[in-house]
TrEMBL record:
This is phosphoglycerate mutase (2,3-diphosphoglycerate-dependent). Keywords: Glycolysis, Isomerase. InterPro entries: His_Pase_superF_clade-1, His_PPase_superfam, Phosphogly_mut1. Its EC number is 5.4.2.11. It is an enzyme of class 5 (isomerase). Pfam families: His_Phos_1. Signal peptide: none annotated.
Length: 213
């Protein structure tokens, strides 16, 4: 089966968290998954299995519980509870600084809609006390280069469960996107993105495994 051949990198954004549900800026805070979020992770796992991706050699995740739990749900469903797993804060979500914990609508009232839009959707303008996507990439990409990419280069099948902006950082490099392009890239919670790569880390194919209806 083609799904079992060659190097594989699967990226999964964590399922919906309690703070996602409340429309809050979350960043490095540690809310749990909602029931919907757990269901998203389970559906993602089922979609992986249905596409033939049931064996991985290693997994990576952040130190945040919502990503850890998303990964655990996926690994249990595909029968790989004991998979070698590395956790590192380099893969944490973007730090939203002073916006953390604020409702996004309330933040627009407090700081102005245009300013909040700039903080959320520009590549290199950080919110007060926080990180821009550019700063997030500066911690994610060295970790990717030193820990994840070498495992892919060995022909291994690698699973990464992380967050919207830490995954955007990797996708930007994998797909050669500009800062303007990556900030417009939306990642659905719990939906696996499957990359087949050559030994140099070049993308041969990409498949987004959408939620089953």
């Amino acid at each position: 089966m083609a799904a079992s051949e060659g190097s594989l990198l699967v990226l999964v954004r964590s399922g919906e968290s309690e703070w996602n549900k409340l429309n809050l800026f979350t960043g490095w805070k540690n809310p749990a998954l909602t029931e919907k979020g757990r269901g998203e992770a389970l559906t993602g796992a089922k979609n992986l299995a249905a596409a033939g991706y049931t064996h991985f050699d290693v997994a990576f995740t952040s130190v945040l519980q919502r990503a850890n739990d998303t990964l655990a749900i996926i690994l249990k469903e595909i029968g790989q509870d004991d998979l070698e797993t590395f956790k590192d804060q380099a893969l944490n979500e973007r730090d939203y600084g002073d916006l953390t914990g604020l409702n996004k609508d309330e933040a627009r009232v407090k700081f102005g809609e245009e300013q909040v839009h700039i903080w959320r959707r520009s590549y290199d303008v950080p919110p007060p006390g926080g990180e821009s996507l550019e700063l997030t990439a500066k911690r994610v990409l060295p970790y990717y280069a030193s820990h994840i990419k070498p495992r892919v280069a060995k022909g291994e099948k690698v699973l990464v469960a992380a967050h919207g902006n830490s995954l955007r950082s990797m996708i930007m490099q994998l797909e050669g996107l500009s800062g303007d392009e990556i900030v417009k890239t939306e990642l659905e919670t719990g939906v696996p993105i499957v990359y087949k790569l050559d030994k140099d880390g070049k993308v041969l194919s990409k498949d987004i495994l959408k939620h089953q209806s």
